[in-house]
Design goal:
Largest sheet: 4 strands, antiparallel
GO cellular component, one term: cytoplasm
Organism: Drosophila melanogaster
CATH topology: Methylamine Dehydrogenase, Chain H
Pfam family, one: PROPPIN
Number of helices: 4
Keywords: Autophagy, Repeat, WD repeat
Distance between the termini: 31 Å
InterPro entries: PROPPIN, WD40/YVTN_repeat-like_dom_sf, WD40_repeat_dom_sf, WD40_rpt
Oligomer: single chain
CATH architecture: 7 Propeller
């Protein structure tokens, strides 16, 4: 789901940050060790679950709220260790032919991504049950694993020249579908909590698309921007699956609302609609379909693309940030964890176009439970 930071980043004082699958905890690794934090009271405090001194890490994945963590160190980048952090014991370790670029976990499978292969382990006994060899060169270790056990799908790039997404059934161990998502190579992938949808972004970074992971049909097309081509580094569905958040190498984080009810209403036949609705969303849909016969595809695509529901502007560009949206204490929250060592907590507006309000900024580099309240800064 999250990031890979090399030795130069850690040596420069940066941190590795990673949310778990259901956004209940945050893993933070620095040059001196790693910590796990609970997000249950993040509006006010950041409670530390665990901390240990260790080798410099560049990958850590926690399995939901369990005591199972998978880690890869800078010193041994080809070795995966699976540990029980509460017992402070190592369950197993595996070595691979090349550097491990990504590790993904759910309750059924553990995925290890190398540059040109993927290893699928059974989470119960950690044995390798399948290997996908000779994948297109994937130097960034781009892949996604659904957190769902029912729709346990693995996604990875199917081409080095185009934005093809390969969907693989990680339980039944066979290819499911190939989605021609973009014209340019992929930059980001994320499954919805149910695993039935997948969000994609390309290296161009202007358009985000959401597809059915089961049949490859396009469900949403979202416009991040018109002028700036950016590098999208994080895509994440909200835990309620109603929102999608993206971050890039710019200072702006975009939140999109996935309005499935509006889509169904607009596409339904014989449903009653008010005149206001017709002049709003439905007329927009009608116009976008009507002009298809008269205008080039590139133009009609712009008509049909959804715009950001809300956005956040952070202090500076060029900082890698992992984003997530979760319901915490019955409130919807945007969480932004950045490699420069901060966790930002925002409220999400109920009205489109309104501003997200900053609630808290936590300093991840502090070793105690102190969190700086941005209101006093």
């Amino acid at each position: 789901m999250m990031s890979l930071l090399g030795r130069t980043d850690v040596d420069a004082g940066e941190v590795f940050v990673n949310f778990n699958q259901n956004i209940t905890s945050l893993a933070v690794a620095t040059s001196g060790g790693y910590s796990l934090y609970s997000l249950g009271s993040v509006d006010s405090t950041l409670d530390k679950i665990y901390h240990t001194k260790s080798d410099e890490l560049f990958l850590i994945e926690r399995l939901f709220e369990s005591s199972l963590v998978a880690i890869v160190s800078q010193r041994a980048p080809r070795k995966l260790k699976v540990c029980h952090f509460k017992k402070q014991s190592e369950i197993c370790n595996y070595s691979y032919a090349n550097t491990i670029l990504a590790v993904k976990l759910n309750r059924e499978r553990l995925i290890v991504c190398l540059e040109e292969s993927l290893y699928i382990h059974n989470i119960q006994d950690m044995k390798v049950v399948h290997t996908i060899r000779d994948t297109p060169c994937n130097p960034q270790g781009l892949c996604a694993l659904s957190s769902s056990s029912e729709h346990c799908y693995l996604a990875y790039p199917g081409s080095v020249t185009a934005g093809e997404v390969q969907i693989f059934d990680a339980i039944n161990l066979h290819a499911k579908t190939m989605i021609p998502a973009h014209d340019t190579p992929l930059a980001a992938l994320a499954f919805s909590p149910s695993g039935t949808e997948i969000a994609t972004a390309s290296e161009r970074g202007t358009v985000i698309r959401v597809f059915s992971s089961q049949d490859g049909s396009r469900l949403f097309e979202l416009r991040r921007g018109l002028k700036r081509c950016v590098s999208i580094v994080s895509l994440s569905f909200s835990t309620c699956a109603e929102y999608l958040v993206s971050s890039s190498n710019t200072e702006t984080v975009h939140i999109f609302r996935l309005d499935r009810s509006a889509t169904e209403t607009a596409e339904g036949h014989g449903s009653k609609q008010s005149s206001d609705d017709w002049m709003g969303y439905s007329f927009f849909r009608f116009l976008s379909k009507t002009v298809t016969s008269y205008l080039p595809t590139q133009v009609t695509d712009v008509f049909s693309q959804g715009r950001a529901f809300a956005s956040v502007t952070l202090p500076e560009a060029g900082v890698r940030r992992m984003c997530a949206i979760a319901t915490i204490q019955k409130q919807l929250r945007l969480l932004i964890a950045s490699q420069d060592g901060y966790l930002y907590v925002y409220s999400i507006p109920t009205v489109e176009g309104a501003e997200c309000q900053l609630i808290k900024r936590h300093d991840l580099r502090l070793e105690d439970h102190y969190a700086m309240d941005i209101k006093g800064a």
